[in-house]
Amino acid sequence: MQLDAAKADGSEKMTEMFTVMRAMPWAAIIGLFVFYFLGGYLLYSSLFAAVGSAVDSETDSQQFMMPITIPLMIAVFIAQMAVYNPGSPAVFWCSIIPFTSPIVMMIRIATGNAFEHPWELLLSMVMLVATFIFTTWLAGRIYRTGILMYGKKVTWKELGKWLFYRG
Question: For 21, phi and psi rounded to 5 degrees?
C-alpha cells in the first residue's frame, strides 16, 4: 500500500519536473551560458597571462596563483548553496562579483531565479565585461615591464610598481 503511494508521488514529481523544464527559455539559457563561459574564460585568462608575464619559472608563479584560484573555489562552494537557496544574500553577491559570477550566476539561471530579477542579471553581465577589460589592461601593464625583467624574482611590491611605471 505504501509502495503504491510512493510510486504515485514519484511519478507526480517527474511530471511536474518535465512541465517546468518545457516552460524554461532554453535559447536564453544557452545564450547566457555562452556569454558567462566566454566572459569567465577571458577574465581568468587575462589574470593568468599577467602572472605568466611577471614570472620566469613555475616555482615563482605559485605565490601569484593562489589569489586567482581562491575566488574560483569560493564560487564552487557558493554554487552548491545556490542550488538549494538561490535567493540568499551570499548567492546574490557572488553572482554580482565578476570573479565568482560565471559560476554562481549560471546556477541562478538554471534554477530560473535570475529571470525573476533581470536587473541583477544585467548588472552581473556589465560588471563581468568591465572587469575583463580592466584586467586585460592591467595584464598589459604588467607584461610591458615584466617581459624585460628576465631573471629577477618578482614580489608583490615590485608588481605594484610595474603597474604605475611610466616609461
Answer: -65, -40
Residue identified by cell 624574482 is 153
Nearest to 96 by CA among 139, 126, 54: 126
Alpha helices (H) along the chain: 2-23, 26-54, 58-84, 89-96, 101-111, 113-116, 118-146, 156-163
Contact between 132 and 35 (Cβ < 8 Å)? no
Q: What is the pLDDT of residues 97-148, one digit of tens each?
A: 999 999 999 999 888 888 888 899 999 999 999 999 999 998 888 888 777 7
The residue extents of the domains of the chain are: 25-163
Helix crossing, 26-54 with 118-146: angle to 10°?
Answer: 20
